[in-house]
Amino acid sequence: MRRFSRLAAFGLVPLFLACASPSGGAPEQVAATDRVVAAPAERTMPPADSVPTLVVFITIDQMRADYFDRFASQLTGGLARLERAGALFTNAFQDHAITETAPGHATTLSGRFPRHTGIVVNSAGVQDPQAPVIGAPSLNASPFRFRGGTLIDWIRIKDPRSRALSVSRKDRAAILPLGRAHQDVYWYDPTSGRFSTSTYYADTLPEWVRDFNARRIPQSFTGKSWTTLLASGYPEPDSQPVENHGKDFTFPHVLPTDTAEAVRSLPDFPWMDEVTLEMALSGLRALDLGRGPQTDLLAVSLSTTDAVGHRYGTDSRELHDQILRLDRSLGAFLDTLFAIRDSAKIVIALTGDHGVAPTPEVYAARTGTKTRRVRTSNVIKPFTEALTAHGVDASAFRYSEGMLVVDRPALRRAGFDPDSLVDAFAKEVKKIPGVLRADRYPEIVSDSLDDPIARRWYHQIPDDLPVALVVTLDKYSTGSGNATGIHGSPYDYDANVPVLFYGPPFVPGRYTRFARVADLAPTLAWITATEPTERLDGVVLWEAMKSQQKADSRKQ
Question: So what's the pLDDT on residue 235?
Answer without folding.
Answer: 97
